[in-house]
Amino acid sequence: MTYPSFHPPVRTLMGPGPSDINPRVLAAMSRPIIGHLDPAFVGMMDQMKVLLQYAFQTENELTLPVSAPGSAGMETCFANLVEPGDEVVVCINGVFGMRMKENVIRCGGTPIVVEEEWGQPVDPQKLENTLAAHPDARLVAFVHAETSTGVCSDVKTLSQVAHARNCLVIVDTVTGLGGSEVRVDDWGVDAIYSGTQKCLSCTPGLSPVSFSPRAVERIRNRKHPVQSWFLDLNLIMGYWGSGNAKRAYHHTAPINALYALHECLVLLREEGLEEAWARHRHHHEALKAGLEAMGLSLLVDEPHRLPQLNAVKVPEGVDEAAVRTQLLERYGLEIGAGLGPLAGKIWRIGLMGFGCNQRNVLLCLHALEAVLTEMNAPIERGHAIRAAQRVYGETGHRDEV
User: Fold this and answer.
1) 161, 240, 261, 271: which one has the fewest Cβ atoms less than 10 Å from its Cβ?
2) Domain range holding 351?
3) DSSP secondary structure letter of residue 205
4) Per-residue pLDDT tens over the stretch 355-396
5) Where in this protein does the record say N6-(pyridoxal phosphate)lysine is found (predicted)?
6) Please, are residues 375 and 362 in contact by the beta-carbon 8 Å criterion?
């Protein structure tokens, strides 16, 4: 039996990830492969570290992309910093806080949970009270940008609370990096991980991470070996060195995927980090105006909303899965479903990276209104596009990426 080559359909990706990719990034992936210890490739690795330091706003020497997706970035942080018997405070306000807890357990640690309602940010006072009740805790872990709900927590304040109790801080910013303000050094973050397929608009499969000198010291002084050989930073540091230091072979890096990430980071630098944050906020405001004009509402209170991940409440009586199916089949438009207790109750509409633009906002509003109208959903018709265009008319924001 013979099989044809696979040619995927053209989609507009406005879900929780992956996001649309700039043609420059796709072109970068097609460049000739070279060895993962080739001097030219090593030079690109050094550039990538500097570009990632810019994206994270850090001077941490140990800043690099893990050769696996964001979940492996999470595991890298926990496997290297959690030892058997460690008490770790984990703040849970969505799916990915739950995964942090699971990582603690698998590393032999004891998770101490701070629970929040899904859609609410982590409460610093709850964290303070928990740490006061558990003085032996060594680490605090929480999600900056919770992909399952679209809520953003106050990393700086939570880090200050943790450091006052002599705890290191692990932060998930898989959906945050490149789309929302992230300032690792200013906020006092000790370990942070992200993913390439969200606001960086790269292919899935890489996870940028960064570790503070305090975190590196703890990793180097562990009493137990890191449980994962592949993710042991004591070994990986030998490959992701700096300058003219001889690189020690650790694994065959995903070379062409790293070409793509390098190009994404070059694009981010060309646009400017703060300009990228402003662009995501701008198009979020237009999308929000259109959704509200349609009579739809967002799950998260305005001060805590992520501009790049919009959790939209499903109108009463509407089959949310049927809406998503119609959007995909008729408009080639992908949006995401709710997870956990929010399954069937929300849509997750992403405005990430290259896909965060006026065309996508207007397409989404038009398609969503058309599908909901045909389903006789309780919405306001004929106002969404005009509401979004008013936002664009008022600002005159440049849309290029």
Assistant:
1) 271
2) 272-395
3) S
4) 999 999 999 999 999 999 999 999 999 999 999 999 999 765
5) 198
6) no
